[in-house]
Specification:
The chain is mainly alpha-helical. 56% of the residues lie in helices and 7% in strands. The protein is built from 14 helices and five strands. It has a three-stranded parallel sheet with strand order 1-2-3. Strands 4-5 form a two-stranded parallel sheet. Helix 4 links the parallel strand 2 and strand 3. Helix 4 crosses helix 13, helix 8 packs across helix 9 and helix 11 crosses helix 12. The longest helix is centred in the last third of the chain and has 30 residues. The model has no long low-confidence stretch (mean pLDDT 92). The chain binds tryptophan (TRP). The site of tryptophan has 13 residues, from strand 1 and helix 8.
């Protein structure tokens, strides 16, 4: 009996010793987020100004994900030249989108923010992928087909190749999930197909070369549609500026755009009526910008007419954007700070990207760089 009792007390002492050691070690050497958290990667093409669709549909989401994920968020400036572009604006657009990320709440202390064109591994891996991707996988991409129609004769190889570069963007960083809008689902599937194909052709069974990520598509349907056509996505490439509210729009401009936006002649306002896409979109915008619950918005607006609702939406949009715009201006006036954030992000991203690229080159059979 006595022996058993003393054994228990020894093992208890031992346990408590281990426990205090563990506490001391984690306090002294905190695990980096990349060791404890799942990783996400996403980006936005740096063409033109960001609009409410980018903010409400993507960036705001990332801001929330920062708490639980190790976030890699980049500026897709190589993708930006898949449409005709002005060299005088290209660099500035990168800084504008970077400032918009931070102004919307991306925290460079927690998230890695970087520039696609500064990390040559993106282009290089895209080339390697080009050579294992069947052409017909790209020809059936919906986004390509839609954009190609708009560009007519001038469609570049780059536009067709857009999703291969996107696959390289993603697979370089071995993310667990890729948060994107519904419209990017097909590109993430292609990314997975490329990874699986490369693993199958060049990997060993037990040791896949590339990690196959999942798409993270929000099911709460925060799709922001055009102000001039409630069935089309709000988009930078829509020729009509009235179709979108940009993050930098002045209060007067916001007022004008909402005043002119498309509505319908029906009485009362409601969500989810397929015959009233504009009504659903405007109520959704109000819901997202005000932070109110859907049921509360439905009840608040059920008996409203457009004449009463539009000023309410205008006021809400102006108020929601004001703090972002102030922060954005401060950031745009401090290029040195923005540069330091991107430099730090580029350095961290480069290390990871080069590691994956080296692994792929090795399995493809390239000689080691001398
Ligand atoms: N195609 C995305 C868009 O429409 C931009 C993008 C490029 C992207 N590469 C990516 C998104 C990788 C997520 C992951 O804006």
């Amino acid at each position: 009996m006595a022996a058993a009792a003393s054994q228990i007390s020894i093992s208890e002492t031992f346990d408590s010793l281990i426990r205090s050691l563990a506490v001391a070690i984690t306090a002294r050497f905190p695990l980096s987020p990349s060791m404890t958290k799942k990783r996400i990667l996403s980006g936005i093409q740096t063409t033109g100004n960001l609009h409410l669709g980018n903010y409400l549909g993507a960036i705001r989401n990332w801001v929330e994900l920062q708490d639980d994920y190790d976030c890699f968020l980049f500026l897709a400036d190589l993708h930006a030249i898949t449409v005709p572009h002005d060299p005088k604006l290209l660099a500035d657009n990168t800084y504008k989108v970077a400032a918009a990320y931070l102004a919307c709440g991306i925290d460079p202390e927690r998230s890695t923010v970087f520039v696609q064109s500064h990390i040559s591994a993106h282009s290089e891996l895209a080339w390697l992928f080009n050579c294992i991707t069947p052409l017909n996988w790209l020809e059936r991409m919906i986004q390509f087909k839609e954009k190609a129609v708009k560009q007519g004769e001038n469609v570049s190889v780059g536009l067709l190749d857009y999703p291969v570069l996107q696959s390289a963007d993603i697979l370089l960083y071995e993310p667990d999930v890729v948060p994107v809008g519904e419209d990017q689902k097909q590109h993430i599937e292609l990314t997975r197909d490329i990874a699986v194909r490369l693993n199958h052709q060049f990997g060993r069974k037990k040791e896949p070369v590339l990690k196959v990520p999942d798409a993270l598509i929000r099911s709460d349907g925060a799709r922001v549609m055009s102000l001039t056509d409630g069935t089309k996505k709000m988009s930078k490439s829509d020729p009509s500026e009235l179709s979108r509210i940009e993050i930098g729009d002045t209060p007067e401009l916001i007022k004008k755009k909402i005043k002119k936006c498309k509505t319908d002649p029906m009485r009362g306002l409601e969500f989810d009526n397929p015959e009233r896409p504009e009504c659903n979109n405007l109520l959704t915008l109000y819901m997202l910008l005000s932070g109110k619950e859907k049921a509360a918005v439905a009840a608040e607006c059920a008996d409203m007419g457009w004449g009463q609702f539009k000023p309410l939406l205008t006021e809400t949009a102006i108020a929601a954007l004001q703090p972002i715009q102030e922060k954005y201006q401060t950031l745009m006036d401090d290029r040195t700070y923005l540069e330091s954030v991107l430099k730090q992000g580029n350095e961290k991203a480069t290390l990871i990207a080069n590691k994956t690229l080296a692994k792929v080159k090795q399995v493809l059979g390239y000689a080691k760089p001398l």
